[in-house]
Amino acid sequence: MTETAPAPANDTGHKMSAKNVNVFYGSTQAIRDVSIDIDMDHVTAFIGPSGCGKSTFLRTLNRMNDTVASARVEGDIRLDGEDIYSPSMDVVQLRARVGMVFQKPNPFPKSIYENVAYGPRIHGLAASKADMDGIVERSLKRAGLWEEVKDRLSDSGTALSGGQQQRLCIARAIAVDPEVILMDEPCSALDPIATAKIEELIHELRGRYAIVIVTHNMQQAARVSQRTAFFHLGTLVEYGVTDDIFTNPRQERTKDYITGRYG
Ligand SMILES: Nc1ncnc2c1ncn2[C@@H]1O[C@H](COP(=O)(O)OP(=O)(O)OP(=O)(O)O)[C@@H](O)[C@H]1O
């Protein structure tokens, strides 16, 4: 099937829609008037030079910036049409629906089992021990980690290798049944083999969730994503089908970046 260009932000039917988003840290503006749509069954990559605002914008999508005292977000961000910055939005629930995987794997200092079971327990997703066992197994399977850990679920999550820890963090995000998974440079602390496994996993997860990945690595963006958004100096310069962005960028700044002229 031929990919079509993303529709404008005011169209309905998108998993997430951000419109005219500005983000400030104190009086410094980090994001300027960004509008973008995020769709199911797609991996969307955010690329751009260091400091351009990729992570800041990513964190607006599940209100992670709420945890930064100086951060202020303006604009409209919707999940299935619902304003995620509305006072009635339950932020704990939002972060389960829009899960996040960080740059540095950050398992809890608990067992592998508990790392995955923690979220479902908080959200009351399992009625019995058997239910919970099922959720843990399914999540670890989806994260491609089950075969490696099924005989040692009570070992500490922090004793796993870096790549396994990152897949454990993905299992933890999956366990609460998210709709969107945000990944902030999930491979930057991993070696090439562990990176390849995560990329393969992203490919497999794509059909189930909307995935947004921040990456410094343009080859990675080209390999894993169907849509690419290029950020520069806090603005969204260009957003489109990944192949188009990499082979036929419309903006000079995008072209300069992908050809390595800066960044
Ligand atoms: N907690 C913070 N307090 C103040 N300023 C911040 C904070 N986090 C980020 N910034 C600033 O906001 C701008 C965007 O940073 P951000 O981390 O979002 O960029 P990025 O594109 O993800 O960069 P990198 O690729 O280096 O991670 C930068 O100027 C940065 O210094």
Automatic annotation (TrEMBL):
<dbReference type="InterPro" id="IPR005670">
    <property type="entry name" value="PstB-like"/>
</dbReference>
<dbReference type="InterPro" id="IPR003593">
    <property type="entry name" value="AAA+_ATPase"/>
</dbReference>
<keyword id="KW-0813">Transport</keyword>
<dbReference type="InterPro" id="IPR027417">
    <property type="entry name" value="P-loop_NTPase"/>
</dbReference>
<keyword id="KW-0547">Nucleotide-binding</keyword>
<dbReference type="GO" id="GO:0005524">
    <property type="term" value="F:ATP binding"/>
</dbReference>
<dbReference type="InterPro" id="IPR003439">
    <property type="entry name" value="ABC_transporter-like_ATP-bd"/>
</dbReference>
<feature type="domain" description="ABC transporter">
    <location>
        <begin position="16"/>
        <end position="258"/>
    </location>
</feature>
<dbReference type="InterPro" id="IPR017871">
    <property type="entry name" value="ABC_transporter-like_CS"/>
</dbReference>
<dbReference type="Pfam" id="PF00005">
    <property type="entry name" value="ABC_tran"/>
</dbReference>
<keyword id="KW-0067">ATP-binding</keyword>
<keyword id="KW-0592">Phosphate transport</keyword>
<protein>
    <submittedName>
        <fullName>Phosphate ABC transporter ATP-binding protein PstB</fullName>
    </submittedName>
</protein>
